Every structure is written in structure tokens, then in C-alpha cells.
Amino acid sequence: MTATTGERFYPCDMCGASLRFAPGQTRLVCDHCGHVQKIPAAGQAATAVALRELDLRAALADALPPAAMEETRVVKCPTCGAEVEFDPALHARSCPFCGSPVVTDTGRHRHIKPSALIPFVLTEREAHKAMMAWLGRLWFAPSGLAQYARAGRKLDGMYVPYWTFDARTETRYHGHRGDAYYVTETYTTTENGKSVQRSRQVRKIRWTPVSGRVSRFFDDVLVLASKSLPRRHADGLQPWTLSALVPYSPDYLAGMRAEGYTVGLAEGQAIARAEMDRQIEQDIRRDIGGDEQRIASRDTRLWDETFKHILLPVWMAAYRYRDRSYRFIVNGQTGKVQGERPWSVWKIALAVLLAAAAIGAIVYLAEQGQLPR
After folding, report:
1. Full DSSP string of 54-69
2. Contact 12, 18 (CB under 8 A)
């Protein structure tokens, strides 16, 4: 392998052509002559260092060691803002996130180096099959879109950046526990023109002051570090099996591309903290118990805060159909599909007409007394 900063070339030992990573396998394949080369296995010591969590406070203070940083050549899409590492041999390419044409530049981006990734498990053909099956299950999708997607257009293999956050937490809280009880209440109502008395059970809550403490260790709180993908779509690709993470090696990127993170570490930490707070609130409510809970105050202490920058495999397609762009993404580990749902006005109108005709037929038969009783 020969390499420059952010630009890597993987020559075939047999013919010198470029190698690519073979999804689902730990090898590099030459499309020119078919030669196969294994990805060199990292030693145990290197593995331990590569997967080591980084200190969050040091990173936020810009005090990480130089070995944790790297510089890559990227191009920024002027439409969606995606920062993607491109093959230096390519001078023009469409953005894999939105389909807009982009031109590579010589800009370099210094950032926190990925420490781990999940290699692609699904091949491009398998991902395309999963996407077509997903499109086929969408009611009211334009038929032409599926035909357009089926017309041999390949999906792009992209490693999407994520942050993972770890933290130990302890939260002291004050609040109230609510226990339900019932009382019998008598009321007056009118029946058949007469006033009568009736009784009913009324639910009441008895509130008791409480205070306590809950603790939790958060392991690998996952935060999307890309602004190019809608977060709801990226979240829809979960769950990821993070136990399949392997130490980062550029060999896995051969023939693929990687997006640089556009959600900074501080912003990612804020998103992770909000997720932690939601879980801590659930823990407090369970600790309070009872039928209802009120949380008056809480104070959370965090320590041993660490993070990782990881890359997760996504197959994606950005199709332009009738002057509109549709994006579809496929989890490169599980085959789960998410995307922008297209609608066909004609199919919806036809369905409405058919439904109206069916209702009209039922009403007509009912009026004629021809429906079975």
C-alpha cells in the first residue's frame, strides 16, 4: 500500500490495478485480474490501543495527543453540506447524499481520527435488493421511481461518522410519590324525569415527599455525527451491533468512501447528554415508585466521560425523478432500509375513486335489499 495524507492507493500484487474491500469478507479484491489479498490483521496490542476510549474533557479542551488526530482531503457538497473523502483520481462526481454534482478540491480537513468501524457485511447487490423490496412495499409510490431505481444504477458505499459516549452518573433527586386510592362519591342525576341519587368510585392521589439517588453507567450512547442525513432516517437504521466494531484500518475503505463528521464533539456531547437525561428520568420514576411521580429537582454528577469516533457502513442512493431528489439508505450490516417516501398523486386519486365506487355499490345494494342479512 502507498499513501499520502488522506489519499490512499491499494495496488494489486499481481497487476497493479486498484483493489477494493469485499463486503462480508476480510479481504481486498482486484476487479481487473481477480486477485485476492487479505487485510493484514492488527496485533492484539494495536487492537487495544485502537479501541481505547478517548478522554472527553481533554478532547473538548483540544488537548488530545497528535496520534488521535488526522488530516484528510475532502470535498464539501455546496447543496447539503456533506464533507466526503473522495478518491484523488476522481475530478467530478455527484454527491451520494443528495445527488447534486460536485467538483473535488484540494481542501484538507484536520479532525479526530476514527478509532473503529463496522465493515460492510452486505454487498451492493444485496443492498440494492433490500432497497427494491422496501420500495415495493410502499403503497402509492410512483411506479416510475421503482423502474428508475431498477435501471442498473449502483448504490454508493459510504462510511458514515458517529460518536459514542460513555459516562458514569449519579443523580440525587427530590420529588413526590403518588399512590392512588378510591373514595365513594354520591351524586344526583335525572332519570325518566325524576331526580335520583347514584354513587361512583372517584380516583384520588395521596402525595408523599421522597428523595433518593440513582446511578447508571452509560456505554456507547450513539450519536450521528453527520448533518447530511436526516436524523430520523439514520435513527431508523438502528439497531447496530456495536460488538462487531473492529480497529480502524484504511484497508476497509478501499473502493468505499468516508464522510467527515459535521456534528462536532461538543454538539454530539449535548445530544448524548439529552439522551442520558431521558434515561435518568425513567430511572428516577422507577425508583420513586407508586402510581404517579413528580420530580421537583435533580442533580446529576458525571465522571469517567469518554468517547470514540467510529464509522458505520451505509449503502445509499440519491435518485432524481421528475425534477425531484429521493434519498434511500440501507444499513450495510443488517439490510434495514430508510428513505424519503415518494407519493403518486394518480395512485392516491385512483384509490379514492375506487373506494368511493365500492361505498356507492354497497349503499345501492342495501337500498335494493340485495345485501345478505
Report:
1. EEHHHHHTT---GGGE
2. yes
Torsion of CA 258, 263, 264, 266, to 10 degrees: -140
233: its cell numbers: 432516517
C-alpha angle 266/268/269, rounded to 5°?
Answer: 65
Cα separation, 303 vs 170, in Å, equals: 9
pTM of the full structure: 0.75
Q: How far apart are CA 131 and CA 336, in angstroms?
A: 9
Q: Is the pLDDT of residue 116 over 70?
A: yes
**Using CA atoms, how far apart are residues 76 and 326, in angstroms rounded to an integer?**
20
**Cα 32–chain centre separation:** 35
Residues, the chain, total?
A: 373
Buried b / exposed e along 45-78 (16+ C-beta atoms within 10 A): eeeeebbebbbbeebeeeebeeeeeeebbbbbbe
Distance CA 253, CA 151 (A): 26
Q: Residue-wise over 90-103: b if at least 16 C-beta within 10 A, else e?
A: eeebebbbbbeebe
Q: Residue 239: is the preceding peptide bond cis (ω within 30°)?
A: yes
Say which DSSP state 228 is in: S
Rounded Cα distance, 118 and 121, in Å: 9
End-to-end CA distance of the chain: 80
Report whether pLDDT(256) > 70: yes
